Amino acid sequence: MSYPGSSLGGCGLGILLHYAVGVSAAHPIPQAWLSTGETAAKNYDEFPDETEITRIVEANPASVLGVEMPAHTPEAVAAGLSFEQALPAAAERLAALKEAGRFASFGDVAVAYRISGGAEPVAYGVFCMVDTAEISSAADEPGKVIRNEDVFIEKVKQRNELNQQLRHLLSPVLLLQSSRGDELHAAVAEAVAGAGEPVASDVDEAGRTHEIWAIGGDEGLALAALAGDGDLIVADGNHRSLAAQVGELDRFLAVVTTPQSVAIRPYHRLVAGLPGSASQLVEQIAQIGAEVTQVGGPPETPAVGGTVVAYGQGRTWEITFADTEGSVVDRLDHTRVEQEVLGGLLGWDAGDKRITYVGGDYPASWLVEQVDAGKADLAILIAPVTVEDFIDVNLQRLKMPRKSTWFVPKARAGLAIAELPKR
């Protein structure tokens, strides 16, 4: 199969190829399967209400969500299957999609990626394979891939089981190229400009257009090499990257993107099953030294950090925690909520099922609806972390609180998947 190419002339193909030998952590995909249409979907972990997954798969059986979340297909829900019980059906569904021509085969390609048409600037990235051995989760652990958040072990276990069952990687880890971001941004834009029509195109729920191009040969090698040269920060996919380590995969599927391609939206919390009322919990927050003010009207997401907003029982409060010493991470609102409210006052671990993490694609009004409908007792709205702070925290090798950064735009799952070597 032939590959649409690109000139990459402005970046110097010969210079870029220099990084392909012994320097870069990223490589072309040996066996890629690129969508021919209708398979793309939001990532599996972007749904605070997992019944939405079932509705999407029912409306579009070709959606890769039916493979990634097998226990949430209409058939599995009707049969009451667990994740493990539904795994064989996931492999059968993927095989059926390939047999039906929903994916086309490409060998040894870097996949250039563009997202346009949304509220954010045009985003560029590269689907590629990244060396698992380069993952570093601590300051004393060498590696170019910096993983920055604690994880939920059960999710890691499920991702590993899915990888082993399918022998395909479906959702990419989103990596932020913090060292050579400007060069990568220009290189992918140039590759796309010279590559002709995209292999696949998809429009997401926010109206953004996602397009991919297969870049083969020396140009693909050079693009992947540039993508993997320097510090790569895990922006999304901490569980997927750890699952690659647990499963002893040599490489994992990633989209390497650039700082100017992304923004961070809020990451809120819905809390259910409180031992008392929402107002009682807010009173306890005041008793541990926070400044609490009840305000009129529905809650809105704080524009900047320093104050969080809580909503319950039809009431809205603004909460400012007392000053604290420590690192920048210790002072983040997400950290204060997790440690002082959920952990300190309620005694809950961050992975407690009574806590639902709600990303920035869902507005404050949606959280209000959940509380007013009795699906949660309290909503906690937290201002977004800035991209600059996120990069700074990671380069200092500090850890972000769990579920504290909601990056947009995100790569669509099911546009490009990677087949793993046979065991």
Summarize this structure briefly:
The protein has 423 residues and is of the alpha+beta class. It has helices at 13-18, 51-59, 65-68, 74-79, 83-99, 153-166, 181-193, 217-227, 238-246, 278-287, 333-345, 364-372, 387-395; strands at residues 26-27, 29-35, 103-116, 123-131, 135-136, 145-146, 168-169, 173-177, 200-203, 209-216, 232-236, 251-257, 263-265, 267-271, 291-295, 308-312, 315-320, 355-359, 378-381, 406-408, 416-419. It has 13 helices and 21 strands.
Descriptive account of the structure:
The structure is a single chain. 31% of the residues lie in helices and 25% in strands. With 423 residues, the chain is α+β, with helices and mostly antiparallel strands. It has two domains: 21-260 and 408-419, Conserved hypothetical protein from pyrococcus furiosus pfu- 392566-001, ParB domain, CATH 3.90.1530; 267-383, no CATH class. Strands 1, 2, 3, 4, 5, 6, 7, 8, 9, 10, 11, 12 and 21 form a 13-stranded mixed β-sheet that branches. The protein has a six-stranded antiparallel β-sheet with strand order 15-17-16-19-14-18, sandwiched between helices. It has a two-stranded antiparallel sheet with strand order 13-20. A hairpin with a 2-residue loop joins strand 16 (308-312) and strand 17. The longest helix has 17 residues, at 83-99. Mean pLDDT is 92; it is low at 1-7.
Spell out the key features of this protein.
423 residues, alpha+beta, Conserved hypothetical protein from pyrococcus furiosus pfu- 392566-001, ParB domain, 2 domains, 13-stranded mixed β-sheet, 31% helix
